[in-house]
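Request: Have a read of the protein record below and say how the chain folds.
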Amino acid sequence: MTFSSLITSPTFISAVLSVLVLLVVVLIIRVVQMQIKINKLLGGSASAKTIEDAVTGIANNMQDVEKFRKELETYLVTVENRLKKSVQSVQTIRFNPFKGTGSGGNQSFATAFLNQDGDGVVLSSLYSREHVSIFSKPIKAGKPEFELSEEENAAVAAALKDAQAKSVK
């Protein structure tokens, strides 16, 4: 068998065609894989056809993220300022104002409500079988504007200590 008769034989031609078809299939698979990688590189954006388009899109997204970050920082500062003014510590002291007579038991209380700056109010309730008295006294910077009872002072001191411990964290 000569070379010319070999290359013209139907077996050889079908073998060569089979190899070529296999090669085409492998190349198609590689092209698809490359296209997937290019899409990932371009940020998965359908509108980005080139790397330049992808970089421009990413830069625009970064500007949007930066704008959002600045807005969020401003918002968080206002929230932090509002939070400092809100009640941060509540402490209650229960007591019997009529020690010796047994009237009322430990049903009376003094409760301090303070913010981070030590501003707030102390509420007191004196309970007896005949009546209940409720008092409210303002607190500014940890100092009362009116004279406080021993229990009210204890409630304010405990609330101040708690508010300071929370502000350190």
Observations:
- Residues 3-68 form one domain.
- The chain has a mean pLDDT of 86.
- The radius of gyration is 40 Å.
- Residues 51-85 form the longest helix (35 residues).
